[in-house]
Amino acid sequence: MNFELSDEVKGILDTAQRFVEKEIKPKAKEEGFKRDLVSKMGELGFFGCAFPPRFGGSDSGFLAHSVVCEAISRADSGLRALFNLQAMTVPYTMMEWGNDTVKNKYVADLVSGKKLGCTCFSEPNAGSDLASIETRIEDKGDHFEINGEKTWISNGNVADYAVVYGTFDRSKKYKGLCAVVVETNQPGWTTRETPKLGDKSSPIAEIHMENVRAPKENLLGKMGQGFVVAMTALDRGRISVSSGAVGLAQACLDASITYANQRVAFGKLIRDYQMVKATIAEMVAQVEAARLLVRKAAWLNDQGLPFSREIAIAKYFAGEAVVKCAGMAMEVHGGMGYSLEMPVEKYYRDSKLYQVGEGTVNIMRLLIADDALGVKNANRPRLHVPSDFRELE
Ligand SMILES: Cc1cc2nc3c(=O)[nH]c(=O)nc-3n(C[C@H](O)[C@H](O)[C@H](O)COP(=O)(O)OP(=O)(O)OC[C@H]3O[C@@H](n4cnc5c(N)ncnc54)[C@H](O)[C@@H]3O)c2cc1C
Fold first, then answer.
1. Which of 99, 131, 331, 333 could join 337 in a cystine, given CB atoms 3.0 to 4.6 angstroms apart?
2. Which pLDDT belongs to residue 28?
């Protein structure tokens, strides 16, 4: 095993760290969506690591994607969502399942940050249970017509392009699902932003679709493959989410080390108390273990090997780790943890998402346990998915 990052990945990480110092840290206190940051990150190639040059990418891989996403999340966890929407669950899913028209029309503009994407699985009555999706996607001969409601859609109110999951036949349950690319600039597509606890650099919205149209060539995969498209998208999205969790957990540790090295209580720096040391040690171990799990899964994906099981374990562990680390950071900061002057209150708010998005803690536990118990193989075949997009050039 070689745990050393390649020179190429180190170079991308270096660019990301300089971007953090110049562009993110000075505005870290201003919570909210910053469109200009998306464009700058796109221009610097942060979303393109796993994409071939034909689509504006650098072909540096999923491990590079993970490392950059971690570095950005360490500075602002809310920006982590972009690595999902401008890379994994939107353009990567288009590249993986779309025809040439879809790939050529949408992918490069999303990866470069010129256009914004969103991915629409969740509905009022369907979150963890995607087979219960109620949004209707009807074949009208020369186009699809879409009617339904989506909730909790990151970038939902700002996106130009959406991957919408719906059903063409509810009686078929998950076999009746399909996925289509929708251009949001049309009558019938209306959104309302949802106020939320944390991760405020990434807006969330409810979407109402009434007779929304999509051309037939915007179908991803085939009719009835929507569930499989969703599972592959979620596997890739889990790389971004778990990398973001590691970055935020690292930020909790960074802040705790700084504070423990400054704060004096009972005449001594609090770092000299064994119980504070134990907390720091626990955080270090959680961050390191989560990082190794995430990078292993990303590396497997780079090798073209199955990684659904490994990314479920990584997502589960990193999601739990970041929430633990945010709690421990609050503890190390004492009353100052509760203050709006310190960063850790934001970390605490931001952390909770990592136990929910891209599959809840329980859903990850189900995947992992069913695999271990021999009930269901987590790395089950995903029908035909080309593993190497250079083959498609
Ligand atoms: C900040 C944020 C951003 C999001 N962004 C997006 C987005 O961009 N696109 C999108 O489509 N969705 C998005 N979501 C939605 C997210 O994916 C869902 O919230 C998540 O999948 C859980 O679905 P739910 O909220 O309906 O919870 P439910 O599925 O109702 O689950 C509620 C509870 O029951 C548990 N549970 C459910 N089923 C089982 C089971 N079979 N066994 C054991 N426990 C179970 C869950 O683990 C959870 O604890 C986002 C959510 C948040 C909070």
1. 333
2. 82
- Confirm if 235 and 308 have CB atoms less than 8 A apart: yes
Residues 236 and 255 occupy one common structural domain: yes
Distance (Å, rounded) from C-alpha 353 to C-alpha 260?
A: 27
Number of independent structural domains in the chain:
3
Residue nearest to atom 18 of ligand 1 (CA): 127
Q: How far apart are CA 100 and CA 95, in angstroms?
A: 9
pTM over 0.90: yes
Average pLDDT (242-257) is 98
Q: Which candidate in 310, 331, 358, 393 is catalytic?
A: 358
Domain end point (choices 111, 137, 160): 111
Active site annotation includes 358: yes
Per-residue pLDDT band at 282 (split at 50, 70, 90): very high
Last residue of a domain, one of 92, 111, 130: 111
Mean per-residue pLDDT over the chain, rounded: 95
The answer to whether residue 2 is domain-embedded is no
CATH number at residue 238: 1.20.140.10
In this predicted model, what pLDDT tens digit does every residue of 305-317 receive, in sequence order?
Answer: 999 999 999 999 9
Ligand 1 site, residue 357, Cβ cutoff 6 A: yes
Cβ-based neighbour number of residue 147 at 10 Å: 16
Share of the chain above pLDDT 90, in %: 94
Asked if the structure places residue 381 within a domain, the reply is yes
Instruction: Centre a 10 Å sphere on the Cβ of residue 280 and count the other Cβ atoms it contains.
Output: 17
Distance 342 CA to ligand 1 centre (A): 30
